[in-house]
Each structure stands twice: as C-alpha cells, then as structure tokens.
Design goal:
The complex is a heterodimer of chains A (95) and B (482). Chain A is mostly helical and 95 residues long. Helix content of chain A is 36%, strand content 8%. In chain A, strand 2 and strand 3 form a beta hairpin. In chain A, helix 1 packs across helix 2. Chain A starts with a helix and ends in a 6-residue tail after the last strand. Helices cover 39% and strands 19% of the residues of chain B. The longest helix of chain B is centred in the middle third of the chain and has 20 residues. Chain B folds into 3 domains: 291 residues, no CATH class; 114 residues, no CATH class; 59 residues, Arc Repressor Mutant, subunit A, CATH 1.10.10. Chain B is built from 15 helices and 16 strands. Classes of the chains: A mainly alpha (95), B alpha+beta (482). Chains A and B meet through strand 1, helix 3 and strand 3 of A and strand 2, helix 1, strand 8, strand 9 and strand 16 of B.
Amino acid sequence: MVSHDDVNYVAKLARLKVDSTELDRFAGQLSSILGHVDKISELDLADVTPTSHVIKLSNVFREDAPRPSVERDEALANGPDVERGAFKVPPILEA
Amino acid sequence: MKYEPVIGLEIHVELSTRSKMFCGCRVEFGGEPNTRTCPVCLAHPGALPVMNRQAIRYLTRIALALDCEIPGKSIFHRKNYFYPDLPKGYQISQYDQPFAIEGELHVGVEGEIFRVGIERVHQEEDTAKNIHAGESGRIAGSLYSLIDFNRSGTPLVEIVTKPEIHSPQAARAFLNKLKNTLLYLDVSDCNMEEGSLRCDANVSLKPVGAEELGVKTELKNMNSFKHLEKGLTQEIARQMALLEEGGKVVQQTVHFDVASGEISPLRSKEFAHDYRYFPEPDLVPLVASAEFVDEVRAEMPELPEARSRRYMETLGLPEYDAEVLTSSRNLADYYEESLGHYQDAKALSNWVMGELLGYLNATGQELSDLKVKPGQLAALLKMVDSGGINAKTGKEVFAEMCDTGKDPSAIVEAGGLAQISDQSELEALIDKAIADNPGQVEQYRGGKQQVVGFFVGQVMKATQGRANPQAVNELLRKKLSG
C-alpha cells in the first residue's frame, strides 16, 4: 500500500503541488496501479523479452544537415522572464 | 596500513557534427545566446527527436578505436531530473543497453604500458548552458541564472572506464591518450577550455592487495590535464589522512578549487540519484548491423599506433622519434606535410623534435599557432643540406621564422647569412688567423691537434658564424701542417 509519504515524495520529484486532502485519493490510485504490476509479476515471464518499443522499427535517422533555427525572440516568447537574450530563472540552489 | 588509490574516469565528448543530436540546429561554440534553438531542443510539446546518422558513425568510430564490443541492439532511455538547463525534464541517454561495452585502451606512463578497461561507451545529448548572475559567477549565492539553449541537444558521447587506474599521473596519461585518439578519429575538437572534452573522476582508497574497493568520492569537471592530476592528488591525500586517523570516507561529490587547491563537498542536486530511467518511447531502437560497423571500420582514420609503426617500418625512424611525432595528430600531420617537400625523414624528425618542439615548449605556444608552415621548414632544411647556410645559422633562421613567419630565403638574404664556402675567401681568413696566432700554431705543430678548434673559432668569429665548418676544417689542417 502506497503511503502518504510516498505520495509526497513522488509529488516532490515531479514538482507537483499535492493538497493534503488529495493524499488518500492518490495513494489509492497509485496502489491500484502498482497492484496491477504485481499481478503481472505473478506470471512466469522468464522467457519473455522485455518490450521497450511496440512498433517494429529501428534506425530512423536524419542526415547531419543543419536547418534554420527559430528566431530568438520567438524562442524566448514562452519564457516568463528574459534577460540579455537568455531565459531568466530563479536561483537554482536555495541560499 | 598501506593504501593504494583506485580511480575510474567518466569522460564526456561533444561530437563535431554539423547539427545537433536530435534536431537540425547548428552545432557551434558560443555565439549570441539562444540563436540555435528549435521546438525539439527547447522541448516544446509535441516535438519529436530524430537521430543524427553522422553522430552514430562517430560513436561507432570511438567504440572501434577503444576495441569495444558492439552489441547488435541498443536503446535510448530518459534520465529524469529537474534542472533549468534540461528543458524536457529528462536527458536522452542510454542506460542498461548502451551502444558499446568492454573495451580497452593501452597507455604509456613513465616508460611502462598499462591497460585500462572501458566499461561502456554510449550516446546522449548535452544540456544548455547556465550563466549565474552574482558576484562570484558561481551557482552558490547567485541571485538568478540565465539559460542559453545553444548547446542543448549537442551530441555527447560518454566513455566510462573501469576502476583500473592507480595514480593521478596514470589518470592524466589516460586522458591524454584518449584525447589524442579522439583527435585522430576526427570526431571532436576536444577543446577542454570550451568544454568539448570534460572529465569526472571517481576515486577511492583500498589497502594494498585488498579485493574490495573502498568508499569513493566523485570529482566533477576536471577541465584540464593539470587540474585532473592535481585534484586527484589532493583528494587522495585527503582520504589517506582521514583513514589514517581512523575516520571514514563519506560517499559524496567534491569540488576541487584550482586557486586554493582545496577540496570541498559540493551541494548535491536534490534527489539526484533517483533518475527514474525508462525507455525513450520517442526513439526507435538503434541497431548496429555488421555491415554498418564494417562500413565505419573501412573509413576509420589511421590511429597513433599504426602511424607510429608506419614511421618505423617505411620511414626507418627510431621508435622514440615515431612515438614523439605521433603523440598528437597535429604534429604527425605537420611532419608528414613537411616530408612531402623534403625527403630525409630522420633529419626532418630531428628538426621537428628539437627546434620546433623546443620553440613551442619555450614559448608555450600550440602547433596551430606556429607561423612556420611545413613547406617553409622543408625549404630551410634544403638550404642547410645544400650548404647554402650552415646548421648553426639554420637554427637561428628557424627561430626568426617562428617569430616572423618569413621565408628562410628572405631571412638569409636580408641578414647576409649565406654560408661562405668560397675557397679563396676562406683561405684569406685562415691565413690571417694563422699569422695572428703564432703561439697556437706552435702548439699544433707540437702535436696538440685540438688547437684546430681554436682556429675554427677565430674564422667563425670573423664571419659571424657563416663559414662552412667542413671547408674551414679541411683548409686549416692542410695549412697548419704545411
């Protein structure tokens, strides 16, 4: 069973804000997902190759040819804060 | 108790492809921030990555040069962590199915060759560049940071060694050899100052002879050979002191401050160890068929060992010369280009190893800064061989060529440095030297043969060193005995 601490930990990793009133609900949902994985684990899968991709394709390449990049103003347009042509972000380490 | 260091290196190499790993933005160093970005390397929703074929060829060259095993199939994983330089919130990398495994590189240190095992070689992408605003320019204590995504998505190859290096000197020698190999492969400019080649080191101590490894620390971003060697020396000393006091080494990432020489723990990225790797669903598997690998093998440039062997076998150079000349690709290329204009391989080698490297060492210049072109060096040696100037003058002319980049003939002409081989001109000078120094003539005739050197000196002085030494010698002996 997934605990409230687990939910808080995962939320922190994912930078999600989780209200304390939501902890029960998410703990329940995550437990049910993990329970489903446990169910699969009951099967004998020793001879089954893990599936990393479901389509049978490999080696999709592009040639090493530069293409025009987007205009800088356009690139920066979605940034909440900009300075000297760069995205401006808050201090990375807390003081 | 006696301890020995155990070092493993993790090297990141930016490939010199024209475009990025998964999109068509140009790969260059520097430039105005955020001028080489697109929806893929900025991680806009819905943008999809597509592998750069040339990057995979370069990756294959590296794997082959390091004698790696290339399993048929490798896949990409997402390495998840939060950091502003990582727009997607994950780096596309490789995890449990890397491109190449189990390689090796042989390295010479203090006259001995040792083998370093290569754990893995895999493909990933570089992150953006952070500029930290604040007094120190460092991340700690900065007020805010600016992010430049020009570098984001540059093809990056990670090379991980086995923990089989046992001294800071050996670590340096390994990195040097690896860099040289990568330069020969033409896959990266390996410019450490610009970050195209970066090195992290894991280091631990264990009692001599013990099987089990001690607790390790990680030294990040040793951005020059000197720093790598110094940082490791410092960290080994720190761990040694701790253990001898009965203390314990704590597993952590440490920072080596170049200015103070101090080692200090680095603040770790929060939960950084939990990367939640999972297969990258946006990229299909990478299959290196035998045909593909053979194709790349066929286009492999000649590596240092092969070149060195060729110098010995076909040019007849001694092993020492061959090793020195092939110690960097630039130097070997320079040597061979000169050899295209001048045939005496050994004489050329002597000049390159002696005068040319001597000049570079003395001035701290790189070969790429050298003003003397291979054709000019060859022209100088031809002048020496033909007797146009003597060897001693040749060295002076070479020094001037290094300073000015002028042709040797121009320097000789302007300085009136041409060698004097004219019989009558020399004879006149010799006659004068003999007439001026009767005492020394007596000594010579009394059997003191070495006095001839004194007379050669007199003639050289009179000609500012331009007299042909063989001709002077011959004439002197004839005249002194007669």
